[in-house]
Write a structure and sequence with these properties.
Layout lengths: L2 H9 L11 E10 L5 H10 L3 E5 L6 E5 L12 H8 L4 E9 L3 E2 L47 H5 L9 E6 L19 E2 L19 H10 L16 E6 L8 H8 L8 E4 L1 E2 L12 H13 L7 E5 L20 E7 L17 E4 L10 E4 L5 E5 L2 H18 L5 H11 L15 E2 L5 E2 L10 H9 L7 E9 L3 E4 L4 E7 L11 E13 L5 E6 L5 E5 L12 E8 L9 E9 L6 E14 L15 H15 L1
Parallel strand pairs: 6-8, 6-9, 7-8, 9-11, 11-12, 12-13
Antiparallel strand pairs: 1-3, 1-4, 2-3, 5-10, 14-15, 16-17, 18-26, 19-26, 20-25, 21-24, 21-26, 22-23, 22-25
Helix pairs in contact: 5-8, 6-7, 8-10, 9-10
Amino acid sequence: MPLYWRLFSLLYFVCLSYSAADFFSNSFLVRFRRNVDTDEAHTIARRNGFVNMGPVLGAQNEYHFVSHTLPSPRIKRSITYTRRLKVDPLVHAVIQQAGFIRVKRGYKPMRVENLVDSIQPHKDPSDPYFTYQWYLKNTGQNGGKAKLDLNVEAAWAQGVTGKNVTTAIMDDGVDYMHPDLKFNYNAKASYDFSSNDPYPYPRYTDDWFNSHGTRCAGEVAAARDNGICGVGVAYDSKIAGIRMLDQPYMTDLIEANSMGHEPNLIDIYSASWGPTDDGKTVDGPRNATMRAIVRGVNEGRNGLGNIYVWASGDGGEDDDCNCDGYAASMWTVSINSAINDGQNAHYDESCSSTLASTFSNGAKDPNTGVATTDLYGKCTTTHSGTSAAAPEAAGVFALALEANPQLSWRDIQHLTVLTSKRNSLFDAKGRFHWTMNGVGLEFNHLFGFGVLDAGAMVALAKQWKTVPPRYHCEAGSVTKMQKISSSNPLVLKIETKACEGEATELKYLEHVQAVVTVNASRRGDLELYLTSPMGTKSMILSKRPNDDDSHDGFTKWPFMTTHTWAEYPQGTWILEARFNSLTPQTGFFKEWTLMLHGTKEPPYTELAVLDPHSKLAIVKKAHESRIKRY
């Protein structure tokens, strides 16, 4: 069994801690006893009163069946319909799909200014909204801080504009007839999983609620110098529309098929949505969706791996994006946002799994958002939220992939860490300061490793050598049940050699997970901290004032940190659990497993260093010093 499938099997149990579904759909996952072709699946579906929607992730033994006679949504599972399928001699298992909620991040209702016709070009560059695109070129307009931007002009000046790269916008559809998008639209890579057809055009509503995906698409690939709206970060790249958000509820099969759609035609999947950002939800990808993502990073792009970009969440300081299993996954790139003067936005969530940041809206004028395409050929300047941040990152990654098409999904993450900049980013409330980890990399609990720098990423991508193979090491566990209380915080330790001498040995960290089972009289008052052997302390769970759970807790939940990136894993890891509450709280800590992910060989030895003060030079020096000790 491949190593990554063993890892998937280990992590599959996280599904147990997700909130129970409030309702069930009329969709069923049907697993056959042997491989069947599509025609045979159609026959089996018809004779049992179902419609075959097609195979799941291309498998020949798993199909998606729908019953149009079963009321949906419903509170209870349908035993009758499940049995109807299970008695068929070819059917091995039937799983009725739970319905759950996924919400767009950063959507704001329509404003009158959204309807204003495009301004005619008046200066170079010709795109009329370019002057409003402060996140591409910040000259201090609208109260912003000059040069606080994505530095895309430095990438464009290198002749890199996103050619031959496709980004899929997984959302509520894309207006592919928009004049600023239609020539960069990749129809072959697009699909509508809400209506099951190849045309992911947004469904009309009076309030333009389904403008979300079109706005995100324009940020990535709006055309340049055509006199319409603004310009995309990677304006010569392609965008695909995957319509999958526009239905009353989400199912595992819709998500899985969306994230596994055309993995060799699509390079980057951009997601500006997730579980409800209410500060009390703990949720993430289910079984089939997890399988789709794991397959994408290991097999997509002909083995180089798809890049999944995720908006970190809009729950503000009362939420923690480590409770969002999509944004906190090591297989996704979680992106937070900043506003045009360097502060975090009021809706930004913080967590240790965030890798980097881009931009959302203005400081002095909240209506100064991201200028991009809108429905029906219109333009807008008010797109905002981490919804706006994720597509900007996707555009930067598209530039990097044009500069070096051989970059793997892990290479993109390494490049992000090494080229993102602190610039002028700061926490408006002074809670989270910039900190240096054990090998000299600067990080922030809100912004990750800083704001993306397209020029620097493209320049480093051109000389990049693929990082060594990745290993997963189960470094140790604590399984003794122990009580926690407000007066008695818990400190647990794991001493590890990081699988030294084994096939999965590693010496240079990428992602670190603390897989935790714990309950509490009030889950939202629990805080967790993980400290590495090199002394880097990560808050892997913060206080969530709205989370009143006293029953579910966390069951084998993989809290993830990127803050120890490139550090050495051997030594003592410390996990602290404590309550942050004026009211006395109690709980039981049941289990902690430490999962280390990284390489055995140093990752940057073959790269030239042009700037002795760069992150790359600092980390290489730390690694070379370490190598001499062995």
